[in-house]
Design goal:
Rossmann fold, binds xanthosine-5'-monophosphate, ten-stranded mixed β-sheet, single chain, five-stranded parallel β-sheet, 512 residues, alpha/beta, 19 strands, 14 helices, globular, GMP Synthetase, Chain A, domain 3
């Protein structure tokens, strides 16, 4: 990682903060989101090329409004304040912030001074997203106005000499036309970044750092077959080779052939020290007769930890425990609240009873798509790198009601047919999650001249970006028809297939 190319993003609690970090990285400049109250010493230590203040819901005159460290504007480091960030810059440097009668919200024509380095290459009138009530009524001494809207006299300001800039609009969102160019201008014209941060340099630097840090010591990694833990494992393996041991707990609730595929990739392709624990019977025993989804999750989580612990004990003390934590899991909001973390969603959590001295999280600073790029860079097969999300408790929450081996087998076959046909139709890239569910419903059918009384399979497919909300996917009828006919013909004990046409909310993606 090129330390001299760091952009620090001070988080004042705005909803687009991660987006700002992404936009900066898309310009090949490494960025980090840090709490708004980061100390001057810490900033100096990090030695950023520039600082961005995010927006936020507070008003600078509010009692508990978040403020930055004193002296931040005297460091000689360029600062770009966005929305609340601009207001805070104004307030701190002696200008005036006022409250408007009405909130200005939406894409708005902003007239800018295109002789400013921040707006180099722009037309004079631009559509940017405004979203604010407070506004800068008087810019601080030494600043000049470089933008306005019909309702906001100071939509942009600069003190070019001190390299301090403020914008009331949000350049990071797509609604702001050419918004990224404003960020680029800040990075390249004002901060003097060179933009040479790339995933390949991240990979190279990480391997080097991990080598130095771990040396000849031993590391242990829980491998799930998911993208994050896979990429973390391969990265570690490149750094320390056989001193890394991976434990893959196969709970028997994975999709058809998945356990073997994981073993194949990590053992054969990468020659990683992999211990696969076939623990299906243990899990099924514990799950026998259990119908409540949350109980299933709990049992699987606990059993997973137990199995992992038993295996880890056989290895003895290790120096490092590898975790596949990624950036969105660790970003703390500047207002002290942590961002969305799906705590119940990860099997196992942190096995704190394993004997290790330190945790290593090599992907801690990467966004999901950067983790995928890292995976490709490391040579991990595409089907694993672009794997759709798969819940930790696996098929246990896709067999509705109690789980048996027979039911799991039925579901695995049906699910595999569905996935195969989606891939054949080239829909696997546009549908974000798709799978089969074995409902607990049996119904009457007729096959040949025989009456049947068998299971109903439900197909689920959703399009979503964040998995928090989503719409059901409008899969063409011909494909649904083919899937349905293949499932009833090829999978024993299924005589009916239905398609789930509910979005989230009100339904969730998984059925349990
Ligand atoms: P829901 O069903 O809540 O799912 O709409 C949202 C996303 O989370 C995944 N999911 C889980 N992942 N453990 C996980 O690791 C779980 O217990 C779990 N439950 C849901 C789900 O597959 C979807 O991507």
């Amino acid at each position: 990682m090129k330390e001299n190319e760091l952009i620090l993003i001070l988080d004042f609690g705005g909803q687009y903060n991660q987006l700002i970090a992404r936009r900066v990285r898309e310009c090949n400049v490494y960025s980090e989101v840090v709490p708004y109250n980061i100390s001057i010493e810490k900033i100096k230590e990090k030695n950023p090329k520039g600082i961005i203040f995010t927006g936020g819901p507070a008003s600078v005159y509010g009692e508990d409004s978040p403020k930055c460290a004193d002296g931040i504007f005297d460091l000689g480091i360029p600062v770009l304040g966005i929305c609340y960030g601009m207001q805070l810059m104004t307030y701190t440097l002696g200008g005036n912030v006022s409250r408007a009668n009405t909130r200005e919200y939406g894409t708005t024509k902003v007239n800018i001074d295109n002789t400013s380095s921040l707006f180099q290459g722009f037309e004079r009138a631009n559509d940017f997203l405004m979203s604010h009530t407070d506004f800068v009524s008087e810019v601080p001494n030494g600043f000049k106005n470089i933008g306005s809207t019909d309702h906001c006299p100071n939509a942009a300001m600069e003190n070019a000499e001190k390299k301090l800039y403020g914008i009331q609009f949000h350049p990071e969102v797509n609604l702001s036309v050419n918004g990224t160019q404003v960020i680029k201008n800040f990075l390249f014209n004002i901060c003097g970044c060179s933009g040479d941060w790339q995933i390949s340099s991240f990979v190279e630097d990480s391997i080097k750092t991990l080598k130095e840090k771990i040396g000849d010591k031993k590391a242990l990694c829980a491998l799930s077959g998911g993208v994050d833990s896979s990429v973390a494992a391969v990265l570690l393996h490149k750094a320390i080779g056989k001193n890394l041991t991976c434990i893959f707990v196969d709970h028997g609730l994975l999709r058809k052939n998945e356990g073997d595929e994981v073993e194949e990739v990590f053992k054969k392709q990468f020659d990683i020290n992999l211990i696969r624990v076939n623990a299906k019977d243990r899990f099924l025993e514990k799950l026998a007769g259990v119908t409540d989804p949350e109980r299933k999750r709990k049992i699987i989580g606990e059993e997973f930890i137990r199995v992992f612990e038993e295996e880890a004990k056989k290895i003895g003390t290790v120096d490092f425990l590898v975790q596949g934590t990624i950036y969105p899991d660790v970003i703390e909001s500047g207002l002290g609240k942590s961002s969305v973390i799906k705590s119940h969603h990860n099997v196992g959590g942190l096995p704190d009873y394993v004997d290790f001295k330190e945790i290593v999280e090599p992907l801690r600073n990467l966004f999901k798509d950067e983790v995928r790029k890292t995976g490709l860079e490391l040579g991990i097969p595409e089907n694993l790198v672009f794997r759709q999300p798969f819940p930790g408790p696996g098929l246990a929450i896709r067999v509705i009601g109690d789980i048996t081996e027979d039911k799991l087998d039925i579901l695995k076959e049906a699910d595999s047919i569905f996935r195969e046909e989606i891939a054949n139709a080239g829909l696997h890239k546009s549908i974000n999650q798709y799978f089969a569910v074995l409902t607990n419903l049996k119904s009457v059918g007729v096959m040949g001249d025989e009456r049947t009384y068998d299971y109903t399979i439900a197909l689920r497919a959703v399009e979503t970006t964040d998995f928090m909300t989503g719409v059901w996917s409008k899969i063409p009828y011909e494909i649904l028809e083919k899937v349905s006919s293949r499932i009833v013909n090829e999978v024993k004990h299924v005589n009916r297939v239905v398609y789930d046409i509910t979005s989230k909310p009100p339904a969730t993606i998984e059925w349990e």
